[in-house]
Specification:
Radius of gyration of chain A: 23 Å
Structural class of chain B: alpha/beta
CATH class of the largest domain in chain B: Alpha Beta
Largest sheet of chain A: 5 strands, parallel
Oligomer: heterodimer
Distance between the termini of chain A: 82 Å
Radius of gyration of chain B: 25 Å
Largest interface: A-B, 15 and 15 residues
Number of domains of chain B: 2
Distance between the termini of chain B: 58 Å
CATH topology of the largest domain in chain A: FAD/NAD(P)-binding domain
Helix content of chain B: 25-40%
CATH architecture of the largest domain in chain B: Alpha-Beta Barrel
Largest sheet of chain B: 8 strands, parallel, barrel
Number of strands of chain B: 22
CATH class of the largest domain in chain A: Alpha Beta
Helix content of chain A: 25-40%
Number of helices of chain B: 13
Number of helices of chain A: 18
Shape of chain B: globular
Strand content of chain A: 15-25%
Chain lengths: 454, 435
């Protein structure tokens, strides 16, 4: 019997899409901003600031917002985090600033820092004005590889400091995962693109898209041509399930699914399965599962090999998926895929448990009928692009090793974002990496300039 | 069940909560709505001579807001009633007839001439109102015409007009005092000399509520120009409490009945005024912000408080706090307290630390063993109450008296002794007396 794929478009009437994919956290209006801002206690040595990877002076920007100066507040945010607008949308604030808010201890409800940050940064973005100016030209040129959050944050700070920057981006658009890899309802109104344009508005940053490291440019070549190089490469590959995928149709990376959705002009043309299984426990798993439901999948099941507390997705994100109608099944790993006529039909799972701290199979199995399987089990750094540096680039756990200033082991080369070892793979962490690297690059270049002058 | 009824200088009312002379008491319609909600009495908005005054047709009110736009201060530039005298008198008479058990006091303001007062008193008496209140407090508009606070700021005038009124009417006379004066005891004393039965205070405080930085004019304003108004609301309560206490404990005015006014919003506010000697209280701003229904909270709350404390009637606690109001020089300098932070209640905002560290005595830690931790350093704490004042959690920081213990800041043993400034060795005058 020929099998007809259940992965097809039009599972949801098109008129439902705008509402289904609307802003997850709609902006606060003026009154809501005042009420939310009033709750900030202006703490001493505020725990929320310590919890922010970019160290935004949160009590100060909230006070500036409360006193009717949203642009001044935005400046406070952007000084620390040039992607404050996107971070206000995609940061898991419930595990960062808002988790640290003392209001949790007072009444179990933090100040809505993320949404207040959005109010301020939206106001700035709406003016279209760039509050920063390019520094006096230093005559130094820096190559930034990767136009994701780390690369753009680095490039902007370098421009502020007066250096000329060329950003090399392999893909057609800048923005990295903000543009390609985050749920649509977290990045409505083309915010990722608008923020990139606004950042580049400072001037002095040349963006070359379609330029891939290892294909169109080489690290050696960049080191030759530029005074410094920053690598913000991201993670180029996704992890494999480690079982025979048999070339079945309907099996793909969750990131590819999200990317297709983010880049679609018309969601009604976007195919989705009837019964979708998502493997993984991180934010990408949630983003893929929730969006599959919103596109009209009848059954969406997230399967994760450990318990809820071990999931990379916060409790809030897990509940978001459950509210959207997704089922989350814990303690199971995919063991086998079965298909009919080359098309996925079911996934068999092995039930897992912890034994002496190790994850083992219990011997039980269960099978879920599925026509679409989305893999969200993490990404891997593709080291091949930089390996041509002759093995001089120190790696750990498959990622680039950097010091506190984000210097690699290779002189003149800095790195940041998901491609470096040890970080939490978050936009906000990548921004901090880019910022710190830029400051370090600036110090290094200026020291060399002084030396040359003497 | 506690008895809330009052007999204030012969004016009887089922409870001490009266509406002050102000916009809420300008018409029969409003006053009857108030009586239906349970208010014990009203002071009818100030009557004057015909022709009626004219109000601005722009903003009359301004406010300062606390968090969530709670009105914490309010001001107005409204004048006395702008309705014809005859209309007001007719309505007063009708309302009093329909609500005989409620206090009906009529506020008055006419030029400083005996004939004017004599004439209006006669007409008010015909309404069978229970008493009159002399408006010597209004600080805007009318004061420019030689009335209101222009009278209240000159004790001789206060005395003179009070005497005229006592001469020409059988009704009890309450003199309403302005706080826009250096020493409120002086006009109170003058009122008593003139024969007034009681004083009421405070009237509103001269104020500009804000500045419109676009128009560079006071906010709110009338066609670009602003004038000071009279401020009231919760923010003025401490000023009013002090002035009430001053009159209650001043020998020349002690025992003079007081109707307390100024920022009263709750039963507790009312009880505080009463503890400092007010026999009744008057409310305006809270009613204007929340409506007349608030009187239920006031009545039920005061009743519950009195039941709990065993006060059968208001007289059981009116003035009870007055003996404990004293001059600074009699405060016990041998007494000492230390701040205590309840670690279970502390939310670790650190405001106590930074307040003390930046602006006071460096007596609160920020960390302990490298961990965020706020604790009082007894060796530095002077017991100033700043930390408890700025703490956002009620009851988290308390000021604990030292009892038979060494004050680790001074090394002095606190044994419960009493020594005030007049007895202190550092006081040069005390030393002179001792030698």
């Amino acid at each position: 019997m020929p099998s007809r794929s259940e992965i097809r478009p039009g599972r949801m009437p098109p008129e439902v899409h705008p509402q289904a994919f609307a802003d997850l956290h709609p902006p606060l209006d003026g009154h809501e901003v005042r009420v939310a801002a009033d709750r900030c206690l202006f703490c001493y040595d505020a725990p929320c600031v310590s919890a922010c990877p970019t160290g935004i002076d949160i009590p100060m920007f909230i006070r500036q917002l409360a006193t009717g100066q949203p642009l001044v507040a935005a400046r406070t945010i952007l000084d620390a985090n040039i992607m404050g607008g996107m971070c206000a949308r995609v940061c898991p604030t419930e595990t960062l600033c808002e988790e640290a808010c003392v209001r949790n201890a007072a009444e179990g409800k933090p100040v809505e820092i993320g949404r207040l940050q959005r109010a301020a940064t939206d106001a700035m973005l709406e003016t279209g004005r760039q509050p920063f100016r390019r520094g006096a030209p230093t005559g130094r040129r820096v190559a930034v590889v990767g136009a994701g959050p780390a690369g753009l944050a680095c490039a902007h700070k370098l421009a502020v400091l007066g250096h000329a920057v060329v950003v090399f981006e392999a893909r057609a658009k800048a923005g990295g995962l903000n543009e390609y890899g985050i749920a649509a309802y977290k990045a409505t109104d083309d915010i990722a693109r608008r923020e990139v344009e606004w950042i580049l508005g400072i001037g002095g940053i040349e963006l070359r898209t379609g330029a891939r490291l290892g294909r169109d440019v080489t690290l050696a070549g960049l080191r030759e041509e530029f005074d410094a190089v920053f690598l913000g490469l991201g993670l180029g590959a996704t992890n494999a399930l480690g079982l025979d995928e048999g070339g079945l149709a309907g099996v793909e990376d969750a990131l590819a699914f999200i990317e297709r959705l983010r880049q679609a002009y018309d969601l009604s043309g976007l195919p989705v399965g009837r019964r979708v299984v998502v493997i993984g426990g991180g934010m990408t798993a949630i983003d893929a599962a929730v969006q599959a439901r919103k596109l009209g999948a009848e059954e969406v099941t997230i399967v994760y090999r450990r318990g809820p507390e071990a999931m990379g997705a916060s409790r809030y994100e897990q509940e978001l998926a459950q509210t959207a109608g997704c089922t989350i099944r814990h303690w199971a790993r995919p063991a086998a895929l079965s298909g009919e006529g080359g098309v996925l039909a079911a996934v068999t799972f092995a039930v897992t448990q912890l034994a002496d701290g190790r994850l083992v199979d219990t011997g039980e199995t269960f099978t879920l009928a599925a026509d679409q399987l989305l893999k969200a089990i993490g990404q891997t750094f593709v080291a091949g692009d930089v390996r041509e540096a002759g093995g001089l680039l120190d790696m750990a756990g498959g990622r680039i090793v950097v010091d506190a200033e984000r210097r690699t082991s290779l002189p003149g080369v800095w790195a940041g974002g998901d491609c470096v070892a040890g970080g939490r793979d978050l936009t906000v962490v990548a921004v901090e990496d880019g910022k710190r690297a830029a400051l370090s690059i600036d110090r290094t270049l200026r020291a060399a300039m002084r030396e040359a002058a003497e | 069940m506690a008895d809330l009824s009052v007999d204030f200088v012969g004016i009887k009312a089922p409870n001490p909560f009266w509406l002050a002379s102000a916009p809420p008491t300008d018409k029969a319609y409003n006053v009857e709505r108030a009586f239906r909600e349970g208010w014990g009495g009203v002071v009818w908005k100030t009557l004057g001579e015909d022709p009626p005054v004219v109000n601005v047709s722009g903003p009359r009110y301004g406010a300062i807001h606390g968090p969530d736009r709670r009105v914490i201060g309010f001001n107005n530039i409204e004048l006395i009633t702008d309705r014809p005298l005859e209309v007001n008198l007719r309505e007063i008479k009708e309302v009093k007839r329909r609500w005989p058990d409620r206090a009906m006091v009529v506020s008055l303001m006419v030029p400083c001439e005996e004939a004017s007062w004599k004439a209006i008193l006669k007409r008010v008496e015909e309404t069978e109102a229970d008493g009159i209140e002399l408006n010597f407090g209004c600080p805007h508009g009318m004061s420019e015409r030689g009335m209101g606070s222009a009278v209240g700021q000159v004790p001789d005038y206060v005395e003179m007009v009070a005497r005229w009124c006592k001469t020409h009417t059988r009704m009890p006379v309450i003199v309403k005092l302005t706080p826009n004066i250096t020493d409120v005891r002086k006009p109170a004393e003058a009122a008593r000399r003139g024969g007034a039965d009681a004083v009421s205070l405070i009237n509103t405080i001269n104020s500009i509520m804000g500045v419109d930085l676009d128009r560079m004019a006071p906010a709110p304003n009338t066609d670009g120009k602003g004038t000071h108004g009279g401020m009231c609301g919760p923010a003025v309560k401490p000023i009013a409490l002090n002035m009430v206490a001053e009159i209650a404990r001043f020998p020349a005015t002690r025992g003079l009945p007081i109707s307390g006014i100024g920022g009263i919003e709750t039963w507790r506010d009312a009880a505080e005024f009463m503890a400092l000697g007010a026999g009744t209280v008057q409310v305006c701003t809270a009613a204007m912000v929340y409506g007349f229904r608030i009187v239920h909270e006031m009545m039920t709350g005061l009743e519950a408080f009195m039941d709990e404390r065993g006060y059968a009637r208001l007289g059981d606690f009116v003035g009870a706090a007055v003996p404990n109001v004293t001059d600074w020089q009699y405060l016990n300098l041998d007494y000492a307290v230390k701040a205590r932070i309840d670690q279970d209640l502390c939310i670790k905002c650190g405001r106590c630390h930074i307040a003390c560290e930046d602006t006071s005595h460096q007596a609160i830690t920020a960390t302990k063993d490298g961990v965020r931790h706020f604790e009082v350093i007894d060796e530095e704490c002077v017991g100033c109450n700043l930390c408890a004042s700025v703490c956002p959690i009620e009851g988290c920081i308390t000021m604990e008296p030292l009892v038979n213990a060494v004050d680790r800041r001074t090394g002095r043993f606190v044994d419960g002794s009493y020594r005030n400034w007049t007895q202190h060795p550092n006081n040069p005058r005390a030393q002179v007396a001792a030698e």
